[in-house]
Design brief:
single chain, 17% strand, binds S-adenosyl-L-homocysteine, binds iron/sulfur cluster
């Protein structure tokens, strides 16, 4: 299956280079190529700028006091540190924060911060605008516009959250934002170069300094890129499995027609650095009457045999027009009990940010639709908004336990 990008939607070459998305090497090269810094001073300048940008979070060259005034002016002619615009920001009663961020005209992505997940709190980031893969249960797959986010746009999502949390300069201890999950919009492995650069930048010790072991990349199973993901990023791996046989997975995760379950499992077993301390997370969305039978729970256990794994059951998060419903709570519990008995930790998580509908794919649609809550209620045919698996079911896949 081709995953062609809509080239007409590519960003125009910006007049100013955004420093945010440059790795150390990239920054050094850009400083020299722009003519702003002499080759022999490039490393020192790079280190200075790096610290101001990634440790202190500065967006103003004039605050960089160890760089001469006239050189700061040259920086401003060639480079930018501007943050993207936050179109919408909401804070839930449980502390979940969601952001709708405008990267350019018509280019809006969302990220969500969830406290008390992972070590302290996790930020769910997007890697693309839209997605080419069309998983049948996923709202992102229905969006028309698709393009890769640049490394700068991925890092910017982390910066925006840290601006909002007041986490500059990078705190050594007591961080609120401790984990990153690439579980927002898009397929990260179709944008591996930018995702890998962004991970290099946010994990750099003299910057945002997030441990690579607290960065999780979720993929629908782009088999040829798995090894490169492990080698280039040393990130934790999450696999959106959702089905235990090819017939069903072909239908709900169409990428399976290209890389079937057997091929995918072989690639996962070969994922660099896999161990009991670095387990793969398998995501499994609970779709009523589709993939939620006890037989499928047993098939899942069989499939994962020998792989250091944890499983996350994601209650399906309905969206207007979807053909699916979330599994009944008893079906989810039965499914979970079978997994528990086989030694997998309790995989059902409490929905978060329910009052602000903080789910990936949800925020953007909310901003587009006026009476979304009414529409959603109709779509899921669930009159009780307060039921455990009604309304938003946000980030069940992110909650505590799944992320170390
Ligand atoms: N494209 C990547 C990462 C983004 S999706 C991937 O597919 O893994 C992050 C997770 O949310 C995936 O497991 C995805 O299958 C799941 N997801 C997508 N839509 C959902 C929905 N409506 N309800 C519940 N989970 C959903
Ligand atoms: Fe894309 Fe992931 Fe949604 Fe599938 S689940 S359409 S791969 S974002």
């Amino acid at each position: 299956m081709a995953h062609t990008l809509d080239l007409s939607a590519k960003p125009a070459t910006p007049a100013l280079i955004n420093i945010t998305g440059l790795t150390r090497d990239g920054l050094m090269r850009a400083l020299v190529d722009s003519g702003v810094v002499e080759e022999r001073k490039a490393k020192m300048r790079m280190q200075q700028v790096w610290r101001w940008v990634h440790h202190y979070g500065f967006t103003d060259f004039d605050l960089m006091t160890d760089i001469a005034k006239d050189q700061r002016a040259l920086f401003k002619d060639k480079f930018t540190l501007a943050r993207p615009e936050i179109v919408e920001r909401q804070i839930s009663r449980d502390g979940t924060r969601k952001y709708l961020i405008r990267m350019g005209p018509g280019i809006e992505v969302e990220s969500v911060f969830i406290p008390s997940v992972g070590r302290a709190g996790a930020l769910c980031v997007s890697s693309q605008v839209g997605c080419t893969l069309n998983c049948t249960f996923c709202h992102t797959g229905t969006q028309k516009l698709v393009r890769n986010l640049t490394a700068a746009e991925i890092v910017a999502q982390v910066q925006v959250a840290r601006d909002d949390l007041g986490e500059w300069p990078s705190p050594k201890e007591d961080r609120q934002l401790s984990n990153i999950v690439f579980m927002g919009m898009g397929e990260p492995l179709y944008n591996l170069d930018n995702v890998a650069d962004a991970i290099d930048i946010i994990s750099d010790n003299e910057g945002i300094a997030l441990s690579r072991r607290r960065i999780t990349v979720s993929t629908s199973g782009v088999v040829p890129e798995l090894e490169a993901l492990g080698n280039r990023t040393a990130a934790m791996l999450a696999i959106s499995l959702h089905a235990t046989n090819d017939t069903l997975r072909d239908e709900i995760v169409p990428l399976n027609k290209k890389y079937n379950i057997e091929t995918l499992m072989a690639a996962i077993r070969a994922y660099p650095g896999l161990s009991n301390a670095r387990r793969v997370t398998f995501e499994y969305v609970m779709l009523k009457g589709v993939n939620d039978s006890p037989a499928e729970a047993r098939a899942l256990i069989k499939l994962l045999k020998g792989i250091p794994a944890k499983i996350n059951l994601i209650p399906f998060n309905p969206w207007p027009g979807t053909q699916y419903q979330c599994s009944d709570w008893t079906a989810i519990e039965t499914f979970a009990a079978i997994l528990n008995k086989a030694g997998y930790a309790s995989p059902i998580r409490t929905p978060r940010g329910r009052d602000i509908l903080a789910a990936c794919g949800q925020l953007k649609s909310e901003s587009e639709k006026k009476r979304a809550s009414t529409i959603r209620r109709e779509a899921q045919n669930a009159p009780n908004e307060d039921s455990d698996h009604g309304e938003s079911l946000p980030f069940a896949h992110l909650a505590a336990g799944m992320i170390d």
